[in-house]
Amino acid sequence: MLLKEKNIRSVVKGISWRFLATATTVAIIYVFFGKLTLAVAAGAVEATTKIILYWAHERIWQRIGWGIRKVEPFNVWFTGLPLSGKSTIARLVHERMKNEGINVDWIDSSQIRRLIPDIGYTRKERVKHLKRIAYLVKKLQDNDVSVICSFISPYEETRENVRKITKNSVIVYTKASVEECKRRDYKGLYEKALSGQIKHFTGISDQFEEPQNADIVIDTEKTSPEKAADMIVKYVLRRFVK
Fold first, then answer.
1. What are the phi and psi torsion angles at 56 (to 5°)?
2. What per-residue string of b and e applies to 12-32 under the rule 16 or more CB within 10 Å gives b?
3. Annotated catalytic, 153?
4. What is the 3 state secondary structure string of the chain?
5. What pLDDT sits at residue 2?
6. Which of 138, 152, 83 is closest to 105 using CA atoms?
């Protein structure tokens, strides 16, 4: 549940705090000096002075940029063959971005497929599906949420749609050979695809168009997930966090 404080509540809280603080000052002066008139006068002066000083203090700090980070909502889009390391690295990047205090969400293909299992895997269905995902990313960005996405997204057409629909997109290509992905395949998906049990399987019965304009290329046969995540986080922070 998201609770948002209304402006009127903030104003009333400010007034009640100021009243309590001033009343405390009046009481302390009265206890020490025993003069109610002096105590009330001092309380009035204190309240007025502190209100003016607080206003001036806030205006001065509004002009100082130190200690403020501006985050331009970004979209880190992972693409690559099945089992190339997309989700593993995306999860690490998401964790490290959260640790940086950045408002970021992670959308993974497997999550969406479990939620909507009848999306389909033909080229037309994939392009249509990922265009929807790109639109979802855009809506999150419009609400100042940065997004990390991990989808095979095998076609240049799809990746270009992502760039057009979203803003500040960073295309990350997790590069690995089909042979290496087969070796990592703990689910037996490649074996099922080779036997014909799975249709439209990227890298076997469906093509993967290698990205020509990826912003970051990670050779996951040579680079550890931790090192890859470090590279991506540094790149994104340098470009979109001021």
1. -65, -40
2. eeeeeeeeeebeebbeebbee
3. yes
4. CCCCCCHHHHHHHHHHHHHHHHHHHHHHHHHHHCCHHHHHHHHHHHHHHHHHHHHHHHHHHHCCCCCCCCECCCEEEEECCCCCCHHHHHHHHHHHHHHCCCCEEEEEHHHHHHHCCCCCCCHHHHHHHHHHHHHHHHHHHHCCCEEEEECCCCCHHHHHHHHHHCCCEEEEEEECCHHHHHHHCCCCHHHHHHCCCCCCCECCCECCCCCCCCCEEEECCCCCHHHHHHHHHHHHHHHHEC
5. 47
6. 138
Topology (CATH) of 75-240: Rossmann fold (3.40.50)
AA identity, residue 72: E
- Given a contact cutoff of 8 angstroms between Cβ atoms, the answer to whether 97 and 233 are in contact is yes
Q: Is there a contact between 213 and 79 (Cβ–Cβ < 8 Å)?
A: no
In the chain, % of residues over pLDDT 90: 68
Annotated catalytic residue within 153, 169, 195, 224: 153
Q: Is 202 exposed, middle or buried (0-12, 13-18, 19+ CB in 10 A)?
A: buried
Place of tokens 């964790």: 95
pTM, two decimals, is: 0.79
> What are the residue boundaries of the structural domains of the chain, listed by start?
12-62, 75-240
Which tops the pLDDT comparison, 20 or 6?
Answer: 20
